[in-house]
Amino acid sequence: MPDPTPQLSSLSRARETKINELSNHFANDDLTLEELERRIERVYKAGSIAELEDITEDLRKAMTLPADMAIAKQSSRSTVASSSGQTIAGRVLAFMSSTRRVGRWLVPQKLDVVAIMSDTKLDFTHAAMPGAVIDVRIRAVMSSCKLVVPPNVRVINETHAVMANVSSRASEVLPGDSPATPEMPVIRLTGYALMADVNVVVRRLEEPFIDDDD
Known about the structure:
Layout: H1 5-27, H2 33-45, H3 49-55, H4 57-62, H5 67-76, E1 80-81, E2 87-95, E3 98-101, E4 110-116, E5 119-123, E6 133-141, E7 144-149, E8 154-157, E9 160-162, E10 165-168, E11 186-194, E12 197-202
Parallel strand pairs: 2-4, 3-5, 4-6, 5-7, 6-11, 7-12, 8-11, 9-11, 10-12
Antiparallel strand pairs: 1-2
Helix pairs in contact: 1-2, 1-3
């Protein structure tokens, strides 16, 4: 009787490859979170490599776009800057990797964070935040995502958790309900965490800079 172990091992590797492919499509905005969840469920139910290939057949066909449509789609994902040179939109993409934004860096007014099977850390302690309100949209899938903020930054956490842990130690309201200003900015955190860990911690400005996980 033939040994079924090689076939099972091959199917297991094919599932991993298919999940990576779906994650790439999700990072490129080709799939919604709900669609990603549905297709990953199909991946684990698939009993053959042929069934796995059917899961992304429509996505492969959609990738054959006319040149002008492909350029427009790529341009929509690029960093956007205002006429004054100030960055108003940007993206941080981490796919099966470790990504760090620490020290002195320029935070765009709208920041899209996509973390898939990765470890991402955004430290706003010494970052330049030109606006009073910063919109950070997180899409974390099977990842760890950590945001570090100074005490003068409020964080309004509206992130949805699906089989995930989302927590924030930062204040949402300051004494007297002071309005947002460049000196006392607000980070509005939205998006999704799917089987992920998203944490917001507070670090004092006078504390020494250490790139750790405290």
